[in-house]
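Cross-posting from the chemistry board since nobody answered there.

I work mostly on the small-molecule side, so proteins are not my area. We synthesized guanosine-5'-triphosphate and want a rough idea of how it might sit in this target. Sequence and SMILES are below. Is it possible to get a predicted 3D structure of the two together?
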Amino acid sequence: MSVNLHNAQFVLSAVSPRNFLEDGLPQVAFAGRSNVGKSSVINRLLNRKNFARVGAVPGKTIHINYFRIDDAFYLVDLPGYGYAQVSKGERDRWGKLMEDYFVRPELLTLGVMIVDVRHKPTADDGTMAGWFRDTGRPLIVVANKLDKLKKSEIAPNLQQVRETLELGEDVPVIPFSAEKGTGREELLGAILSGIKLTE
Ligand SMILES: Nc1nc2c(ncn2[C@@H]2O[C@H](COP(=O)(O)OP(=O)(O)OP(=O)(O)O)[C@@H](O)[C@H]2O)c(=O)[nH]1
Ligand SMILES: [Mg+2]
C-alpha cells in the first residue's frame, strides 16, 4: 500500500493511558532527549515546516502526541527527556507516562530513537534504547544534527552511538540532518518498510 505523506493530521495528545490509541493501525513511536531535534526530524520527514512544534519551551510537553498519516499509520511523538530544568513532579509524570506506554509493547509497531550525533549518548538515552529493545519491536536510530560535524568526525561518532547504545546489527543508525534534509529518504524508506508500506 502506498502512503500520501501530505495527508497528515494531529489526532490527540494523551496524558494518561486512558487516551492511548489502539485501533489496529501501525504506530511508529519517536523518542529522544529534549532539544535533540525530534520535532524537526518529524517535520523534515513529512516535508512540513511547522507540523510538529519546534523549539518553544523544552521539556514542557509531557504528552504523547498522535499524528495520523494518510489513514495508514500513526506517528507517535513521545515526550522528550533529559531537560535539566524540569521539576521532580514533571520528571515523575514523564516516567509514569512512559512506563504506561512501554508496558504495552503491542501498542508499538516500530521505534525511532533520535540522538545528537555530536555527543556520546547519555545514560538516559541508554535507558530509552533499553525500553525500545525490551518491546521486541524493530528499532531505527536517527543520528541527528549531522551538519554540525566535520567530515572526519562522522564515522567515529556514528560508531560511538552504536557502541554506547549497544545496538544490535539489525538496528540501523541513520546519519541525519533535519536542518539540511540529509538522510530523509533513508529514514522514510526504513520506516515504511518497517511497517510494510511504500510512499
Ligand atoms: N544544526 C541543526 N540544528 C537542528 C537540527 N535539528 C534540530 N535542530 C535545532 O535544534 C533545536 C531543537 O529542535 P526541536 O525540533 O525543537 O527539538 P525537540 O527534540 O523537538 O525539542 P523539545 O520538543 O523541546 O524537547 C532547534 O533550534 C532546531 O532548529 C539539525 O539537524 N541541525
Ligand atoms: Mg519537540
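Reply from a structural biologist on the board:
Welcome over. Reading the output above for you: Residues 32, 34-40, 54-55, 58, 80, 144-145, 147-148, 177-179 surround guanosine-5'-triphosphate (ligand 1) (CB under 6 Å). Helices lie at 38-46, 88-102, 123-135, 151-164, 184-194. Happy to explain the C-alpha cell format if needed.
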